[in-house]
């Protein structure tokens, strides 16, 4: 099944939006999602480790380091206590870098009652195990519907209200008794729907997650080529061949090739490979210009998932005998 449309205002769609949600991770994407959900009418608690970031959210309604120029809605509350953030939450979004998803899932498991849906919003493959982020969460969180949210979504643009679309994927069959409009994918889609943010639903977690994990690596390659002085022909070739690699890996893992032609595949690949707003593309570009890795990160510890995941994706592809030359 391709991405399915959940369109229209939340009130016109026959699904119940979540009234209270918790976002775990108060960086740029976690906060952008929290802002979007709060604007859609949900009371959101966002958990962050840094007391200064959380204090700024609560006292000034801003987070200048992560989303400069964005005013946070009043129904969004920052907390530094995870149990407090999760109390009463009807849905949980885990929005930390891929390397922290296992640890955070384990912590979340201590505080959330069974049955509460968990959406993992990190993009990556776990090193050593080769597991998708939702599979990592599944190992740590028993008895929860687990899905993901992914797509071409720069955090700041999303929070500034630029028209943006993403895909929510959960197994539709979870619990057997669920009607489609009660599925966590649909409820999450509705809970995130605003005038500027539109969410499509899918049940192909593998297809969606592989797109998100692999596009970061292709974006580094595009950056490398740009930094080295090559231009549009080279980028188009990398995007097109990169898409083919994504499809092959998704299929080898049981996902659908057509999912990769959706927002979380070609959509995110096109976005991330076209703009130095992308941290992955920017890193590649600097390396291509001849900077050392240490120089690229000097004074700014940023999350560059493609760098962390180039090895885990390559290992996974090799173990499945999927050719991924880029
Ligand atoms: N920034 C963006 O435009 C988008 C990012 N993503 C994905 O979202 C994930 C997070 O990225 P960003 O928010 O951009 O990174 P970020 O660097 O802006 O923020 C990461 C946050 O996670 C927190 N964190 C890290 N480890 C933690 C732990 N163990 N416990 C609690 N908090 C922890 C950090 O303190 C920081 O606040 C990545 O996988 C990224 O690929 C996905 C779509 C868009
Ligand atoms: O995933 C993203 C946009 O969809 C963000 O990309 P970067 O991590 O490369 O900035």
TrEMBL record:
NADPH binds at residues 28-29, 49, 123, 155, 279, 303, 305. Residues 20-170 form the Glycerol-3-phosphate dehydrogenase NAD-dependent N-terminal domain. Pathway: Membrane lipid metabolism; glycerophospholipid metabolism. It is found in: Cytoplasm. The active site is at 215 (proton acceptor). PROSITE patterns: NAD_G3PDH. Substrate binds at residues 123, 279-280. GO terms for biological process: carbohydrate metabolic process; glycerol-3-phosphate biosynthetic process; glycerol-3-phosphate catabolic process; glycerophospholipid metabolic process; phospholipid biosynthetic process. It comes from the Bacteria. GO terms for cellular component: cytosol. One of its GO terms (molecular function) is NAD binding. Sn-glycerol 3-phosphate binds at residues 123, 151, 153, 215, 268, 278-280. Its main location: cytoplasm. InterPro entries: 6-PGluconate_DH-like_C_sf (IPR008927), 6PGD_dom2 (IPR013328), G3P_DH_NAD-dep (IPR006168), G3P_DH_NAD-dep_C (IPR006109), G3P_DH_NAD-dep_N (IPR011128), NAD(P)-bd_dom_sf (IPR036291). It catalyses: sn-glycerol 3-phosphate + NADP(+) = dihydroxyacetone phosphate + NADPH + H(+); sn-glycerol 3-phosphate + NAD(+) = dihydroxyacetone phosphate + NADH + H(+). Residues 204-326 form the Glycerol-3-phosphate dehydrogenase NAD-dependent C-terminal domain. The keyword Nucleotide-binding applies. Its EC number is 1.1.1.94. NAD(+) binds at residues 25-30, 155, 279. Keywords: Cytoplasm, Lipid biosynthesis, Lipid metabolism, NAD, NADP, Nucleotide-binding, Oxidoreductase, Phospholipid biosynthesis, Phospholipid metabolism. The keyword Cell cycle does not apply. Belongs to the NAD-dependent glycerol-3-phosphate dehydrogenase family. Catalyzes the reduction of the glycolytic intermediate dihydroxyacetone phosphate (DHAP) to sn-glycerol 3-phosphate (G3P), the key precursor for phospholipid synthesis. NCBIfam families: PRK00094.1-2 (NF000940), PRK00094.1-4 (NF000942). This is Glycerol-3-phosphate dehydrogenase [NAD(P)+]. It comes from Roseisalinus antarcticus. The gene is gpsA_2.
């Amino acid at each position: 099944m391709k991405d399915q449309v959940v369109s229209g205002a939340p009130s016109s769609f026959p699904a119940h939006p979540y009234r209270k949600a918790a976002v775990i991770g108060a960086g740029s994407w976690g906060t952008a999602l929290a802002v979007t959900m709060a604007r859609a009418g949900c009371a959101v608690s966002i958990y962050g480790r840094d007391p200064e970031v959380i204090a700024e959210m609560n006292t000034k309604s801003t987070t200048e380091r992560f989303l400069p120029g964005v005013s946070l809605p009043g129904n969004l509350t920052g907390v530094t206590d995870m149990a407090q953030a999760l109390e009463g939450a009807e849905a949980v979004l885990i929005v930390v870098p891929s390397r922290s998803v296992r640890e955070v899932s384990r912590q979340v498991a201590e505080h959330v009652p069974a049955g509460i849906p968990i959406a993992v919003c990190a993009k990556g493959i776990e090193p050593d195990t080769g597991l998708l982020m939702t599979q990592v969460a599944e190992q740590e969180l028993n008895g929860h519907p687990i899905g993901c949210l992914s797509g071409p979504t720069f955090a700041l643009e999303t929070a500034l209200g630029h028209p943006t679309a993403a895909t929510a994927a959960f197994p539709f069959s979870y619990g057997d008794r669920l009607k489609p409009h009660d599925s966590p994918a649909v409820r999450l889609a509705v809970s995130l729907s605003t005038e500027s943010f539109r969410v499509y639903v899918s049940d192909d977690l593998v297809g969606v997650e592989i797109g998100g994990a692999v596009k970061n690596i292709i974006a580094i390659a595009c950056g490398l080529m740009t930094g080295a002085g090559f231009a549009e022909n080279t980028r188009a070739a990398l995007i097109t061949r990169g898409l083919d690699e994504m499809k092959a890996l998704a299929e080898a893992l049981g996902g659908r090739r057509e999912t990769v032609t959706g927002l979380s595949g070609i959509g995110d690949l096109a976005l991330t490979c076209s703009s130095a707003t992308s941290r992955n593309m920017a890193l590649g570009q600097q390396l291509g210009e001849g900077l050392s890795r240490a120089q690229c990160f000097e004074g700014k510890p940023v999350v560059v998932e493609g760098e962390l995941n180039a090895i885990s994706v390559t290992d996974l592809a090799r173990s499945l005998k999927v050719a991924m030359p880029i």
